[in-house]
Design goal:
It is a single chain. By secondary structure, this protein is α/β, with parallel strands linked by helices. Helix 12 links the parallel strand 12 and strand 13. The longest helix has 17 residues. The chain is globular and about 65 Å long. The termini are far apart.
Length: 334
């Protein structure tokens, strides 16, 4: 299980254990989920993440599992550190995900209303049935409510300043009749809140920032994967790649769900991967935009007749793919 410590990200209860990589620690936190961090980052988060005070919110919404695996289970965890160290870690832990400043910036809600909507959806995800009261620890509550706990230069705000922010947000949610809230941090969604959640879920993909990536996961496609990732991030979206997504379900239903929730789909057909064809076809059936990519030589040699009728980005070098994909996203996605 490891040593009981305060989480270096949110300050809540966590367990720390050593890993093989020098100067790295692995944490299992009740708020942030499981993550491995380069210890040099712990004292330097203000410089590494200019929005580091919101790193805990990102991990709360993207790092937790409803049914956590054992503490020593290394599948599906986040990595916090530079890209060079991430590549070393990923060689032996293929399901880890690299959390970067760019990903946090693209994910983070840009307005007060977006924050409120994400908070409500987060509360709904935590409840098993209507009328259930959920209790959050202080660290969980602050992360869920996007509380700014640090100044721009990394100096912690006082307990009073954090409490004032938390009180403001919970009072607003109570006044709107979205939730019931008690002093021991118990929260229950009320009918008005549930109605707002229903409206959001009906229009969940209209403002979605996620992009499903359909492609071969062959070893020689790793460079292509990273080029696609960089392009999607540069265009202001969050790439969702199936073998990196944390879930507890069978793979096909989870894949279909991710496509349903995505704004659009990027499908690379270089390996003539049947799964990529299936996923692209499913997305088209839902009325989603599908941006097709393929290595130029492979497309000419064995590109399927049907997909050859579609305006496909044909690439020769992985670096050229980034620029071409960014341009296509910016010109076709409204």
């Amino acid at each position: 299980m490891g040593e009981r410590v305060d989480c270096p990200i949110c300050g809540g209860e966590a367990y720390r254990s050593d890993v093989e990589e020098p100067f790295h620690d692995f944490y299992a936190c009740e708020t942030c989920g499981r993550f491995e961090i380069d210890t040099l980052y712990i004292d330097d988060l203000p410089r590494k993440f200019h929005n580091h005070q919101f790193l805990s919110s990102y991990l709360y919404y993207n790092g937790k599992l409803d049914n956590p695996m054992p503490q020593n289970e290394k599948r599906f965890f986040n990595f916090i550190g530079d890209n060079k160290n991430f590549e070393k870690v990923k060689k032996n832990n293929y399901w880890c995900f690299h959390v970067t400043q760019e990903i946090i910036d693209n994910w983070f809600p840009k307005s007060f209303v977006e924050k409120v909507d994400m908070i409500l959806l987060g509360f709904r995800k935590r409840t098993d049935y209507l009328g259930q009261a959920i209790r959050l620890t202080e660290a969980e509550l602050y992360s869920a409510l996007f509380i700014n706990r640090f100044s721009e230069i990394g100096i912690p705000k006082s307990d009073q300043e954090c409490k004032e922010q938390s009180t403001f947000m919970t009072n607003y949610l109570v006044k709107k009749d979205f939730i019931d809230f008690t002093i021991d941090n118990k929260i229950m969604l009320k009918p008005a809140g549930l109605q707002r959640i229903d409206e959001l879920q009906k229009n969940s993909t209209k403002n979605s920032k996620t992009v499903f990536v359909a492609m071969s996961f062959a070893e020689d496609m790793k460079g292509v994967r990273e080029s696609i990732r960089k392009a999607i991030l540069a265009a202001g979206y969050e790439p969702r790649i199936m073998d990196e997504i944390e879930h507890n379900h069978q793979i096909v239903p989870e894949m279909l769900y991710e496509i349903q929730q995505s704004r659009f789909v990027v499908a690379d057909l270089t390996k003539r991967n049947n799964g990529a064809y299936y996923e692209a076809g499913y997305a088209l059936g839902l009325g989603k935009e599908v941006i097709q990519l393929c290595r130029k030589e492979a497309f000419a040699k064995d590109g399927h007749f049907d997909v050859k009728q579609v305006n496909t980005i044909l690439w020769e070098k992985e670096d050229d793919l980034i620029e071409a994909l960014v341009k296509r996203i910016n010109s076709t996605i409204e």
